[in-house]
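Hi P.,

Sorry for the delay on this. The queue was packed all week, but I finally got your sequence through. Input first:
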Amino acid sequence: MILPPRGEAETAAIERAWRRIEPLALYPRPLDTSRVRILHVPWLFRLPWFRRFDGYTIWSTILLREPLDQVDESLPAHEAVHVWQGQHEWVRLWLSYVKPSTFWGDRSGYYENPYEVEARAAVDRTQAGARNGPPHPVDS
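Then the structure:
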């Protein structure tokens, strides 16, 4: 798929997300933001599998239910953690989602997935009120 170049708002959102999670030093190499894209694809979130999500990451592409200017800053940050995870542990990341409870009725496997736990913790630790102290290691 050929996409137009990133716009200013998209570039700024990616940079803000990276600046927010970077101090956590979750992985040895910094996030390569050069290929990261944020796309508004509302039709995708009408499909049964995607209805429960507000954002979804595939490789370096962050897909959003709502337009970028209408989402909380935490959502691009959460999804940027997934991009960063994929740049370091993509096989383990993808395999971690291949569990029956991830795909069927019981969603506990999704919520307990170490990569989801890490992304949620990264966002929680970088909320405006939580920025005062040093980052704490995240178990993953």
